[in-house]
Amino acid sequence: MELSQAIISGVFGIGVAIVTWLLAGLRELGVSKREARKQKQEKLESLYAKTISQLEMLIRLTESRDSYDQVKRELSDNNGMLRLLASAEVNKQLEKASVLIYHWSTLYRKGAPKKTGGGMAMITSEDSKYRQEAKDLYPEVNKAIVELIDLMKMHIAEFDKA
Asked: Where is the chain membrane-spanning (predicted)?
């Protein structure tokens, strides 16, 4: 009788140890998944903030008629990361915003006064046509960027729900 109670106690003790071990493993797995999700969210937040900054920089460089050389490489690297990590909706809206910014910047630069030397610039009737087209297109560019930012915020918020 005492032997059977000892066996039952031993089996029960082993069972408790196994269940405790399994529960601890599941808890660690849950913590690990939460940590991975948090890291991905932080990476996305950083990537999205950098993207917004680069879009704003493109607009400022266009308006000041400076070279895009300083942001070309960063844009390529950033776009590669976006293609991998961003949602399909964000990538689609980024493409739309990029096309609009390109079209707007082309018109803006065509409409800018041409430098002639000696600190002088010449404005032609052709310039004012392009300048007006760029001015008319700018609200659409701004709207596309705002929509992109909204999609980015929604994508980041999905991590809080999970």
From this structure: 6-24
How confident is residue 148, by pLDDT bands cut at 50, 70 and 90? very high
The string of pLDDT tens digits covering residues 87-124 is 999 999 999 999 999 999 999 998 887 776 666 666 66
Pairing relationship of beta strands 120-122 and 114-117 according to DSSP bridges: antiparallel
Neighbours of 91 (CB within 10 A): 17
pTM: 0.74
- Half-sphere exposure in the Cβ direction for 34 (13 Å, CA): 8
Q: What is the DSSP string of 95-138?
A: HHHHHHHHHHHHHHHHHSPEEEETTEEE--HHHHHHHHHHHHHH
Q: How far apart are CA 94 and CA 149, in angstroms?
A: 9
Task: Report the sign of the C-alpha dihedral through residues 8, 14, 20, 23, in that order.
Answer: negative
SS3 (DSSP) at 86: coil
Distance CA 49, CA 68 (A): 19
H or E stretch covering 79:
helix 69-85
